[in-house]
Amino acid sequence: MFNSTDEVREGLNGQQYVASDEINTVVLLAEKLQKPILCEGPAGVGKTELAKAWAGATGRRLIRLQCYEGLDETKALYEWEYAKQMLYTQLLRDKLHDVLAGSQTLAQAADRIAQEEDVFFSERFLLPRPLLQAVTAGDPVLLLIDEIDRADAEFEAFLLEVLSDFQVSVPELGTKKATSIPAVMLTSNNTRELSEALKRRCLYLFIDYPSVEAELRIVKLRAPDLAPQLARQAVELVQRLRQLDLKKSPSVSETIDWARALVALNAAQLDRATLENTLTVLLKHEQDVQRAKRAISAPSAGSGGTGTAAGGAETPDIEYRNLRPRRRSE
């Protein structure tokens, strides 16, 4: 367990995760208070990576539940292995014949089978899903409930018992209560509003797009072979692209992919041709690509022309009259 924010910072840095002071503080409080973290923010800013880094830094086993529309408790909690039950039934036919011997009526046969049903509804035939795995785990684990906003409100309500008491109910076996409280992180991309009941049970954390310096540190960690000057140019240009009125702004993960692509292409500088040929690594909608190409057509206001990289090569700049401020909710 972490004992200070400095330990959190060092632990996450050891997993190649650059965390802000706010992130370090919330992770420390989650450890101390044994409360889940609800982490919201735009897609691709490092919410899931934070859970992975937290698990790696503390030596916890990561158990991940990926949410989607229509997810129900049988997929998240447990289900019975019916095929295995049927196989055992076939293998134990002779034993069943002995159990039913002497039954005069169908009711008597059913009663005798009922006396043995605990055999077929035992942990031998129980297939635990992520929630039950986390609750019954004997070793330290971190439960990641990824993109909870994609699940239905009914499933969100079902989670309340797990997050409040760290226990789940299996009708055939009773209540399973955690002997060791797992660390829990829920992530959300804000596609829908989450309930107040869920938020009340969690520590809240919002991760936004990083600053230039923070993103540059991330790129240097994840793409160390990229030349420092080229890395800064790439990060600054991504930051400007995020100010455009795009359908999908480039995420931090896409910045890392782009930096690695520049290394793979042996790019020596960020000239206009290199940028236009690799824009689709950053932007995933054609209309965004075309808008970005139009925005690159002129220098920044007050810059007096395009930038110049080492060796005198011109670097592309974004025309600020094509930009608009982005609200936090976008």
Spatial gap, N to C terminus: 35 Å
Overall CATH class of the largest domain: Alpha Beta
CATH superfamily heading of the largest domain: P-loop containing nucleotide triphosphate hydrolases
**What is the domain tally?**
3
Using DSSP, what is the number of strands? 11
Q: Which architecture name of the largest domain does CATH use?
A: 3-Layer(aba) Sandwich
The major β-sheet equals: 5 strands, parallel
Radius of gyration: 27 Å
Strand order, sheet with most strands = 2-5-8-1-9
The name of the CATH topology of the largest domain is: Rossmann fold
Q: What's the mean pLDDT score?
A: 84
Q: Helical percent range?
A: 40-55%
Uncertain parts: 298-315, 319-330
In N-to-C order, the SSE pattern is HHEHEHEHHHHEHEHEEEHEHHHHHEE
Shape: elongated
Structural class: alpha/beta
- The number of helical runs is 16
Content of β-strand: 5-15%
